[in-house]
Amino acid sequence: MKAKLSRLIKTNEPARKASVATPDEVEQQKWMGQGGEILTFEGEWCVRIRKTYPLDEVYHDFKFGEAGQMMARTEHPFFAVDLDPDQVLFMDTETTGLRGSGTSIFLIGFARIRAEQLEMIQYVLPHPAFETAFYYHFLQDIGDEVRFVTYNGKSFDWPQIKTRHTFVKSRVKQLPSVGHVDLLHAARRLLKPRLESVSLKAVEAYFGHERTDDLPGFLAPMHYFQYVKERNPEILLPVLEHHHADCLSLVSLYTRLSQLVTIPVTDFGEERAHWLHDLGEQDQALREFEQLPSPSKRAIMRQALLLKRAGRFEEAIPLFESLHTIEGYVELAKYAEHKQKDVALAIDYTERALEILDQKRTVLRQTMQREKDALEHRRARLERKRT
Amino acid sequence: MKEGDWMRKSRSVEEMIKQLKDDPGFSNHVRHWHTVDARPAQYAPIPEQVPEQLANVLKNRGIEQLYTHQAEAVKQTAAGHSTVIVTPTASGKTLCYNLPVLSKMIEKPTARALYLYPTKALAQDQNSDLMEMVEALEGNLRCFTYDGDTSPAARTKVRDAGNIVITNPDMLHSGILPHHTKWIRLFENLEYIVVDELHTYRGVFGSHVANVFRRLKRICAYYGSHPKWIMTSATIANPLELAELLTEEEVVLIDRNGAPQGKKHLVFYNPPVVNEALGIRRSATLETKRIASRLVEANIQTIVFARSRVRVEVLLTYLQELTRRELGPKSIVGYRGGYLPSERREIERRLRNGEIKAVVSTNALELGVDIGQLQACVLNGYPGTVASLWQQAGRAGRRHSESLVIFVASSSSLDQLVVEQPDMILDRSPEAARLDPNNLIILVDHMKCAAFELPFQKGERFGTVDTEDILEFLTDAHVLHERADRYYWMTDSFPAHDISLRTSDQENVVIVDQTAKHQVIGEMDTFSAMTLLHDEAIYLHGAEQYQVEKLDFEEKKAYVRRVDVDYYTDANLAVELKVLEENKTDGAKTFGEVSVIAMATLFKKIKFGTHENIGSGPIHLPERELHTTATWFTLDERFAYSEADLEDQLEAVSDLMRRLAPLYLMCDTLDLFTTIQMKSTHTSKPTVYLYDRYPGGIGLSEALFKDADMVLEAAERTVSDCPCESGCPRCVGMVGYGDFKQQVIRQLQALKGTI
């Protein structure tokens, strides 16, 4: 019909120019309206959004700049970083699923401390078809040597990046060499069992910064799928905000937790003492244990063992005695036998340990039997020695 | 010599055979005595493709030459072919794949191989064998099993360092393929895929696995490798067809078994009739007891196969009692599923040094597990397929001495057919394995998994299948999104998680065993669950009996408890069948697509052996719809005197077809359902429909259409050979009258087209 009309009826209108914007261009315009930069590569494109903050801006109780100061100063084995602050990325990702090769990362971003400001960058994947451009630009920007500060990044985000990189590695840079400061592990160490859940949200709330109107993490994939179908960046805004907040939160959390483990007086003394012990810092751990105002039995035991190992028996013995536990009595028995050369005393301690074992109700029969066998073996051996 | 003395003297198999032949109490009931001549070994030198170090390892084990089929396997694989080797029991199949794989790895240390076994248990079993050879080679080769039991720490090691990864299809499907980027070293360097027990990949399971293989090949191609397949199969009618259907590759068949075999006797024994009118015979289990005791007392190492756990226990107890005083109770061993490799080695060892006199087992033992070779085998009842029969019989038979296999028929019609017409078994090859990789439901499920693994390109094929329609379907369902001619995964789900390789219904009923503690023992599609898992049903799992205490249809859970009873349950399904499309027909029989609306109504309790009805009950479940394929047969009204006659004939024909079709289709009796319509809406004539119980059909009714004449012939013979007068439950499924038998025979002949 249309063709027939144009054949039969001549009009005076000039021919319409075929300048219809492609869907890509339309979407790119919208992104630019949101402050995004369009980065292209080999026919693909992605979005980069950059924001800066002054270093003395306070977020969750701490100035951004303080994170840089902690990095430079701290000697705690977990929080120390061996590179300059501008190679330390406080990083987080948003993914379309939890695992497997069909899951993509659609948002990757980090906060980074630079000389004069805190820089916050987000990369958006407009469609899974554009992963090459996405990783190309991300890897170009971060350099060859990077330390990540993340929340579960060591077990989740970084392995995901490695997986996705496999699909594009022939066309983009190699992955950088990396190190991790995974604040989730720090939170577990310091805040459990005080907190039942150490999700980032729960930790923020504990320190008085509960998020309001924030998008729950599990809804992020749905927003992304809808954004992809409708090509409307507005749909993705709540996810971008949530992700943005996550990254900034990491900066302050790093400052907070690294301070927690270094300030002289703290509410978390026992937790950090145990942590240092498990990180292999025995001397430091001992100093921490010694300063605890009200140590648990577990802390006392560890302190006593560390003292024993350091040869400071006179300090260790009273601690073992104060415990009234099986392990404590075993240590006393050993000391009595080998150092005090008092076999009768050793037997006495061993029997006290057996008494406690008999009263224990909470152990598995198998374990209890094993412990009993060990103690009875010790006693028998000591008896033989006595005669 | 007194009778007692005679009973307890050791005999050789040859002597025992003579004794049985001379004893009328035995020989009078032998319907057929079949002998297979002894076969000497056929040797071939160790091919030059086997490197010297490996050849030395063989020589140190006493192997100076190979059997012809082993050498052939090495040569064909070295020539770059995929192969399928038919390996009956005790034919040295592991060398057929271990030699080519290890040879390649010596030549190229970065090479990798994937070994697939149908179950975890079998995989772990074979691992120790392979490990021994690898250790003897003293190189840097590493082989690991990778399955649900592998610890997280070990998993990384297996991925990075495992030259040979041993696993099963379920793990491949949900644990390896969807995480393929973690397995990049394996896939980039994959040279061989070894598939053992190929014949188990049939039916629904086989259809799923064929698609898992398509995904595997697709991922290998992505990483640039093109591995060859080395497959082993038990004796089935179509090993090559099966191999090519599963792998969609060109495969070379190696089926001339070079392993030696002593002379084999296969005796078809039918217990005598004790009630003519009802056609009841002496109990097969009792007869088995008597025969097995004779063998055991003659010190002949025997294995007895029984069809149910109950019967195994009965036979075991009796034989143990018999030998308790002279030989000790541990000389008779019961084999139940789930033994550890170490326990199996122990049985093997004790058989070899003569400590064990007899093994009593269920069919669980036939699945490739090796416990060494015995001298005699007694089968209590037909194991269900010809292939199984030969596999069980294959357990008896040493390389250089005679072996004796005695098949004792039960009163079931299938058993009776087999024992009276053994040529049906002996003259024809065993059943063909059937599967349908392009069953739409299964195909779409795996295309989802494949799309999750790697985006599909427009125009790309999945195996040999065009993907366009399915990709569009998945896009419309918001599972995929297309961009730049590629289809990307667009949901947050993990598809392999919801797909079980063992059923084809997306909503399965999970079977929970409550006997000790709650444990999931299996799954079943909802359609079958209506008749197999209703409240009070007796459910057979492996060879264990369970009773369903509660079927929670809403939650799709069936709670069962172990029992030992002497009856089975049979549920009635009220069925409305509608023909959707006719695909092929020849007038008497037609094949096509049907829609079945079914509702389970009531069930009966039927005693084993006598088949008495000892109780019944209602079933309260909603109806289900099933779209599948079917073959139907229309009866000729001219052969009936009245409408009532015609109805009876229809029931008889349908009953016969239902019982006998499995003989030819290598399927469970339960994979094919039957329904009758007196005045079929489709044909307006009395019609019997046989349909696949799996949505989309699994190739069974199609095979039935092709082989219908064989089944009809068997049905005819069952009726005409039955000793009853006018028809009985054994032949026509009901008590007949007058010339009813003749009527039924004529209908069957009409369906065959012979009158």
Description:
The complex is a heterodimer of chains A (387) and B (755). With 387 residues, chain A is α+β, with helices and mostly antiparallel strands. Helices cover 52% and strands 15% of the residues of chain A. Chain A has 16 helices and nine strands. In chain A, the strands form two sheets. Chain A has a seven-stranded mixed β-sheet. In chain A, strands 3-4 form a two-stranded antiparallel ribbon. In chain A, β1 (36-41) and β2 (44-54) form a beta hairpin. The longest helix of chain A has 24 residues, at 237-260. Chain A starts with a helix and ends with a helix. Chain B has 755 residues and is of the alpha/beta class. In chain B, 37% of the residues lie in helices and 26% in strands. Chain B has 24 helices and 34 strands. Chain B has a seven-stranded mixed β-sheet, sandwiched between helices. A seven-stranded parallel β-sheet of chain B has the order 6-7-5-8-9-4-10, with helices on both faces. In chain B, α13 (284-297) runs parallel beside α14 (309-327). Residues 1-7 of chain B have low confidence and may be disordered. Classes of the chains: A alpha+beta (387), B alpha/beta (755).
Please provide the count of β strands of chain B.
34
What is the structural class of chain A?
alpha+beta
Number of helices of chain A: 16
Shape of chain A: elongated
The H-and-E topology of chain A, N to C, reads as HHEEEEHEEEHEHEHHHHHHHHHHH
CA-atom Rg of chain A in angstroms: 31 Å
Overall mean pLDDT score of chain B? 86
Identify low-pLDDT runs of chain B.
1-7
- Name the chain pair with the biggest interface and residue counts per chain: A-B, 21 and 25 residues
N-C termini distance of chain A: 119 Å
Number of separate helices of chain B: 24
In this structure, how is the largest beta sheet of chain B organized? 7 strands, mixed
Overall 3D shape of chain B: globular
Number of distinct beta strands of chain A: 9
Percent strand of chain A: 5-15%
Low-confidence segments of chain A: none
- Helical content band of chain B: 25-40%
Helix/strand/pairing category of chain B: alpha/beta
Largest sheet of chain A: 7 strands, mixed
Main sheet of chain A: which strands, in order across? 1-2-7-6-5-8-9
